[in-house]
Amino acid sequence: MTINFLCPTHRDWVYFHPQEALTYIEEAQQQGEMLLEKQDWQEATAFLGCAFETTTILMELQGVGRSHMLSRLTSLAILLANSFNKLRVPDNGMAILNLAKTLLQSAADLSLGNKGKLAYVQQCLFAITTSQEQNKGNLAYQQIEPFRHIH
């Protein structure tokens, strides 16, 4: 499953303006977090999703193994998955977490010779895996929950 948050024009902008995109990520994440606090899940998801997709594009441009965006990717993936859970679409959240895990695993594979970086990437992977396990719990709960009201 591929989830796009950026339109083609904005996606192209990120490719051609990577420095400005770094500022955009920060602003979009802050706006998304503020909206999460207000429990405006729909708008928060849009901002966090755009920041997440922009992060993945910048990682692609830098090379996953050299990227300094690993913690940003991790935090955005978890925030976005939580937001999708609040919107009752945990499958979308799981798709985001799976993508983040794939990118982080690639970074780990490229960091085998650098113990410090490998340990850092493994911490990010642990955070994603933990969020995936919580997301699976939400999937099971949401499938069972409606039947509890029948009795």
Task: Give a written overview of the molecule.
- There is one protein chain.
- The protein is an all-alpha fold.
- It is 81% helix and 0% strand.
- It is built from six helices and no strands.
- Helix 3 runs antiparallel to helix 4, helix 4 packs parallel to helix 6 and helix 5 packs antiparallel against helix 6.
- The chain starts with 7 loop residues before the first helix and ends with a helix.
- The C terminus is likely disordered.
Largest sheet: none
Structural category is mainly alpha
How many alpha or pi helices?
6
Q: What's the gyration radius in Å?
A: 16 Å
Content of β-strand? under 5%
Uncertain runs are 143-151
The helix/strand series, from N terminus to C terminus, equals HHHHHH
Secondary structure: helix percent: over 70%
Q: Tally of extended strands?
A: 0
- Note the overall shape: globular
Task: Label this structure with key terms.
disordered C terminus; 6 helices; mainly alpha; single chain
Outline:
The protein is mostly helical.
How are the SSEs ordered, and which strands pair?
Elements (H helix, E strand, L loop, with lengths): L7 H9 L1 H20 L3 H22 L7 H17 L3 H21 L4 H34 L3
Helix pairs in contact: 2-3, 3-4, 4-5, 4-6, 5-6
